[in-house]
Amino acid sequence: MNSLTKHLKKSIEIIENNKNNLHSDLWRLNFHLMPPIGWLNDPNGLCYFKGEYHIFFQYSPFNVNGELKFWGHYKSKDLINWEYLGVPLLPDQPFDCHGTYSGSALIEDEKMYLYYTGNVKYSGENYDYINNGRGSNTILAISDGNNIISKKCLLTNEDYPKNFTCHIRDPKVWKENDNYYMVLGGRTKEDKGVILLYKSLDKINWNFLNIIENKNKFGYMWECPDLFNLDNKTILMISPQGVEEQGYKYQNIYQSGYYILNGDYKTNNYSLNEFTEIDRGFDFYAPQTFLDNKNRRILIGWFGLPDIENFYTNKTIEKGWQHALTIPRVLKIISNKIYQQPIEELKSLRKEQLNIENNKIYNIDCCFELLIENILNDITIKLENDVIIQFKENLFTLKFDSDKLGCGRTSRSVEINNCNKLQIFVDYSSIEIFINDGEEVFSTRFYPNEKNIILEIDGNGNNTLYPLNSFSIK
């Protein structure tokens, strides 16, 4: 451990220990993982290792708006009881001195192999930091699950294809037979988002293999790539930037979604199905998946978005923290579409159920799961008479009637044939809506002024409400 590493660790410990009492904050979440203080963004290094789930996350403890990036670390045996392990991955080397950016975990030989992007920004008046002035290094950090044992720079800008900008990042690595593969998000000099595919025999030495791309340009940058098999389908999940809004599609500043990939992506004999958004809400980005010991493909996303300042905001900024991670979601394929279902473990948080009648007004604690089944036709759910969740005439909509709770958020919709079932998780300043067992999902932040909120349902389904206990975090 060099002196810079010691200094950074000590500084973070001091700021975390001296933070205000955030746990009394009205908007702190009960069953979502949050930053101890400051800023959180992408989930990183998701894995199941030696009987425990490990979740790393992009973390800026020194600035609530995000600056120098570290990796924070949580672990759990059951996805309900968590332990915060601090900040194991720091920008303490010349090849990552301006940020340990996003990446993934490969589990092998009783070790975690953590691949990430080391960000370096050079000083220069003529740099645009797109085509020049930035180092995007692919780094391998080896961990025993608690501490970083070693770090090594594997690839630099000089090793990537020449027709790319400096924007290459977010390695996702996996093993297939006796080979290792890695995808990186990239931006070409023609401002086209694509994926770079690499191959290795030893996890260290990587050879460029292929480009995975849409024939037609779809955004200028593809971030946070994830390539995996799901129910005998090959899925390429990405977070594209620069996609133009099309009706109800692509309404956020940046998107997150997937292609079903057909053919052999290791050669040019492949094709991509239509891009499908994975979450239709205001606050979702940079999802990552992993397999657990039950062979579940679990997705966790960033409960937020970058660069939203001109559109909407988060009131938690005034409290010294911003963003969270979504609840974990299990993925499956139905009719060539990914469905997302909340993990079963969340049921252990349920308190005694309450039966909620239609067309009555309830004042309830703002931490609950609402299950509405056997919906026959249109339905409208109101929270605080400001958040409107509605299905009407084959259109599902989440909207805010004012800025009071949404802080600039307006309306998001998706066309859907029917709405038979809703599962809604509300957690003090977050809402996650699962339609028809996860056929569509909406995630949003909102900011009520009290711990209790007004709930009203105008519909004809069977309503059950479960107040929820909180995660245990130590």
Mean of residue pLDDT values: 96
Q: Overall 3D geometry? A: globular
Count of discrete alpha- or pi-helical segments spanning 4 or more residues: 2
**What kind of sheet is the major sheet?**
6 strands, mixed
Radius of gyration: 22 Å
Structural class: mainly beta
Number of strands: 35
Low-confidence stretches: none
Helix content: under 10%
Topology of helices and strands:
Blueprint: H1 3-17, E1 38-49, E2 52-60, E3 70-76, E4 81-84, E5 100-108, E6 111-121, E7 134-143, E8 148-155, E9 164-176, E10 179-188, E11 193-200, E12 206-212, E13 221-230, E14 233-241, E15 257-264, E16 269-272, E17 276-277, E18 285-291, E19 297-302, E20 321-322, E21 329-334, E22 337-342, E23 354-355, E24 361-365, E25 367-373, E26 379-383, E27 387-392, E28 395-400, H2 403-406, E29 411-415, E30 422-427, E31 430-435, E32 440-445, E33 452-458, E34 462-467, E35 472-473
Parallel strand pairs: 1-20, 4-35
Antiparallel strand pairs: 1-2, 2-3, 3-4, 5-6, 6-7, 7-8, 9-10, 10-11, 11-12, 13-14, 14-15, 15-16, 15-17, 18-19, 19-21, 21-22, 23-34, 24-33, 25-30, 25-34, 26-27, 26-33, 27-28, 28-29, 30-31, 31-32
Structure commentary:
This protein has 474 residues and is mainly beta. Helices cover 4% and strands 50% of the residues. Strands 20-1-2-3-4-35 form a six-stranded mixed sheet, with no helix packed on it. A hairpin with a 4-residue loop joins strand 15 and strand 16 (269-272). It starts with a helix and ends with a strand. The model has no long low-confidence stretch (mean pLDDT 96).
